[in-house]
Amino acid sequence: MIDPTYRFWSPYEDKPNGGPYSWHILDCDQRRWVTVTGSPKAVPRDPDAIKILRRHIDQLDPAVHKITVSDEGDIVSISSHPNDEAAWFVHYPRYDPRDVPNGHTTLMRTQMEEVDRVGHSVDMVRYEDGPGKSQLGIFKYSMIYIHLDRIWNELQIMMALPKHELIVPFGRIVLDDVEPRILGFTVPFIPGGTFDENKTRPFRFAWLQQLTSLVDELHFKFGIYHQDIAGRNIVVDPVTGKIRLFDFEFAAKIGSPSVDIYRNDIDQVIFTIYEILTLDVHFREIASWDQDVKAIEEMAEWDVKIPIEAGNGGIKEIRSFLAEWAAGRRSKAQNGPVNATSQLDWPGFPPQTPVLYTSRDRAYNIEGGSS
Length: 371
Hints:
Strand content: 15-25%
CATH class of the largest domain: Mainly Alpha
Oligomer: single chain
Strand order of the largest sheet: 6-10-11-9-8-7
Order of helices and strands: EEEHEEEEEEHEEHEEEEHHHEE
CATH architecture of the largest domain: Orthogonal Bundle
Helix content: 10-25%
Number of helices: 6
């Protein structure tokens, strides 16, 4: 079940001078778009429109595309007219087996059984992985075109990375059944929950060592920044007892234009360990460019809420190790660019290819013209 906090998202809006305002909202649970229209007083910002939609969504017919609301947030009118549907066309890239590294296999969408919807464009699925063998996996895809390049980027990076005990492995490329277009990909489901989901297990010093060594390897061996290190993207493998990192959606080749200086992996490791141990996430609830890792590093005491497993010292040793590692990495960063020993490389998002669609009595393709 999708966390209610992340169920709705409004990526764009129409705000003419004087109103009315229209917020186009994606319901990630029902995979539908609903436009909320009202006066600037009723829906001045997208959170206000989402709050109103949350009140009414369970009473709306699935065919409803738009609701108009009063200043008090009550529904004045509804529309199921196709012209009021805000859904964007998603131009999925065409699949070409020649572009796929050896050893990676495909899966048709109809070969998967949906088990649950766990996040924005993230489902838990089950599929057959060999004769009589059922695989539980996580299917990641894109419902809007502005996320397509991120999904493509992550898919390519996951395929390019060699198998690693500290990284959730790549699963299958998922293809549309109508024509061979890449919808997304799967990774195996690892039970036990992320650090954000499971906040009761005692913390192991070894997990800190594994995370820092993995970040070093990503930088110095593979030449990439992860750029989204957080407790929500780390699980503990129940078989090995070691951490596994996932979600390479924002990852970038070091030195490329995709590197975000405000998504520094070193700082993110410090934020992550602090958040796991203290359950305090407020330092990263603000815009990335306003986040201050020094406030954590210079804090006299951390208010630790999670037990630390005995054997390798406590919070003092953890903070000392973190400080020494971060200082060493920052010192290296001042000495010039990273020279990765096994630099990863992957293709950029492919050029668009025509997709035929029908409008009334004429056939068109997305590149223009009719037939």
